[in-house]
Fold this sequence. Notes:
The chain has eight helices and 14 strands. The chain is an alpha/beta fold.
Amino acid sequence: MSYISLEVNCPEDFIEIFMAELAEIGFSTFQEKEDGSGLFAYTDENQNIEASQLEELFQQYHALTTVNYELGTVEKENWNADWEKNYQPIEVEDKILVRADFHPQNPKFPIEIVVTPKMSFGTGHHETTYQMLNLMHDMDLQGSSVLDAGCGTGILAILASIKGSNKVDAYDIDEWAVENTNENFSLNSIDHANAKIWKGEVTSIPEKAKYDLILANINKNILLADIQHLQKHLNKDGFLMLSGFYEYDVADILNECNKFSLALENQSVRNQWSALLLRKNK
Length: 282
């Protein structure tokens, strides 16, 4: 199995802007270059990314910055070695350590999550995942039911289980993400009897399934389309946590949420990326 790869060379100030733009046209996984000179973006070969889409996107920025790019493919087998070379542990304040299994434990953190990232988005490195983890840490999830929508590595579902959720469901459109999440469940000793993962999109959620908390760290356009479906699966007074968009997109997200009696409870901003916690009032 191959993945579409894109190398983008650009000033550091534009890296996150291009991440957001590329997510809009179908790229799902991103890795910043260590020297700050750009990024790598990846997506499943079935996304059918057109060269004309990329040319049109980057042409919009030619007056603002210097940018060039190279489109290619990467084999599944090449991914782990690259991550092991570049992947560093993530510290979510003094609360959570996210590390790979080849990193040492650190007892100063009350919670550790072990993730083998492979091709899946959601290692904690990105500002959105960091904020979701931070917001979840401060919630009482004991005995709750949780859905991780677009789970990537499964990192959010894992934290929910660690914090005492007794039912954790997760789905992703990417078959490799499903495989990776199952592996990461095992790495973190998550009981598969209480944690289920499947391949699908928002319409694949069982019709009668209800949750106390739904997590969706995706991107603005997908969220705007999915909120109407996700809110149907919330228990009354249940929570919807969203991220994957910029601070200037918050108004659009909240406008959509207001249609379904989803009231803002908490929010955070980190380097212009936002996360929202909403409660269903009806």
